[in-house]
Write a structure and sequence with these properties.
Its EC number is 1.3.1.103. It is built from ten helices and 15 strands. It is α/β, with parallel strands linked by helices. The two termini are about 15 Å apart.
Length: about 325
């Protein structure tokens, strides 16, 4: 019998339980994959802690790489033995699982299992953030919070590749050095640098056209002050907690600002969109423009330790669970 991490009640990392599971044959439109590497993302913590609703019990995780070991008769896009990757499909912390075949993308030969698992959710998020939510281009100056995190590090490199000037916030001097070496022109350290003041100085008082914020409560209101008139606030996470309710007239007073809360399901709703986004991600990585840093690896059964590490905010780059 294969094993998985199951959450029977929400709470801290200790709620991640290592249990046997039963995995049946694929149903219509499904494939069964034996997973080799599983990506860890902050959204997994939100589900585990109960910040996001999910029927109990559940298996957390939203991205992994594996090998196809069975397919439903109606699936024609895959064959047995294909090495595949997916993101945005809950239930990834498992040795074996069923996945909708239309969410599976074949992994190019030049990308390893652990890189694929670390890349897909973060890379696809970075793709829709800088290529769709706001289309970053040459001459833009942008602000990226949590620049040394999994998405942040990819986003900084990709934006720099697109010709942007990147301002990034981090929590330590060590992380500032890391992002400086990976596309961030102006690394700013929380608690040391006033990022609003720095943004105004860097942009000559104009502000930036877009802020990418995955921190939430601790940075949100100040981030609005970094935007130029009609700028876009992109809130795509809440590692410090949810943003409290606020008077929307603030957006008017600060320059007719735009606010969005993008999600992968909305930006990648079809197989065609998934394949298009994945191809862009693979291309930018294989070109060398974006490098994937996996600085922490854990056994799948030790997912609780991976969550503790991620929540400490001492991690950089990506975390991967090896199944």
């Amino acid at each position: 019998m294969p094993y998985a991490i199951r959450v029977r009640e929400t709470g801290g990392p200790e709620k991640l339980l290592w249990e046997e599971i039963a995995v049946g044959d694929p149903g219509p439109g499904q494939a069964r994959i034996r997973q080799t590497a599983v990506g860890v993302n902050f959204i997994d913590i939100y589900f585990r802690a109960g910040l996001y609703d999910q029927p109990l019990p559940f298996i957390p995780g939203r991205e992994a790489v594996g090998v196809v070991e069975a397919i439903a008769p109606d699936v024609t896009s895959l064959k047995l033995g294909d090495r595949v990757v997916y993101s945005g499909v809950q239930g990834a912390y498992a040795q074996v699982r069923l996945v909708p075949a239309d969410r599976l993308v074949k992994v190019p030969d030049g990308i390893s299992d652990d890189v694929g698992a670390a890349l897909m959710q973060k890379g696809m998020t970075a793709q829709f953030l800088c290529r769709q939510t706001y289309r970053v281009g040459k001459g833009d100056t942008i602000l990226v919070h949590a620049a040394a995190g999994g998405v942040g590090l990819v986003l900084c490199q990709w934006a720099k590749h697109l010709g942007a000037t990147v301002i990034g916030t981090v929590s330590t001097e060590e992380k500032a050095a890391l992002v400086k070496a990976h596309g961030c022109d102006y690394p700013l350290v929380h608690g040391k640098d006033d990022f609003v003041k720095a943004v105004k100085e860097i942009t000559g008082g104009v502000g930036v056209p877009v802020v990418y914020d995955s921190i939430g409560k601790d940075t949100f209101m100040q981030s609005l002050d970094c935007l130029r008139p009609r700028g876009l606030m992109v809130l795509f996470g809440q590692s410090s907690g949810p943003v409290p309710p606020f008077d929307l007239s603030i957006l008017d007073k600060k320059g007719s600002l735009y606010l969005t809360r993008p999600t992968q399901n909305a930006y990648l709703p079809t197989r065609a969109k998934v394949e298009e986004g994945a191809q862009e991600v693979f291309d930018v990585v294989q070109s060398g423009a974006v490098k994937v840093h996996i600085n922490q690896r854990f056994a799948l059964k030790d997912a609780a330790d991976a969550h503790r590490s991620l929540e400490s905010r001492k991690t950089t780059g990506s975390l991967v669970l090896l199944a």
